């Protein structure tokens, strides 16, 4: 029995779909609870989802806080980088 075309496409691009749709799925967290705590939870859940599913390489996932913390206003980039380098 032949699979439907949409199902073949979904299976073929499941990693890309997860990488794009998962952050959108987490957005209500930011809207429902504005503030730095919800931003931190968003970053943590996003990293956990990417880490578990490995849709992007783990070493790239591990570097997400370096980009997300300054962009979300959680930490200045100097502090975030210092924490990663243990200086």
TrEMBL record:
Location in the cell: Membrane
UniProt keyword GTP-binding present: no
Parts forming coiled coils: none
Transmembrane segments: 56-75
Record's keyword terms, sorted: Membrane, Transmembrane, Transmembrane helix
Top-rank taxon: Eukaryota
Membrane topology: Multi-pass membrane protein
Predominant location category: membrane
GO MF assignments: transmembrane transporter activity
One term under GO cellular component: plasma membrane
Protein name, entry field: Sulfate permease
UniProt organism field: Mesocestoides corti (Flatworm)
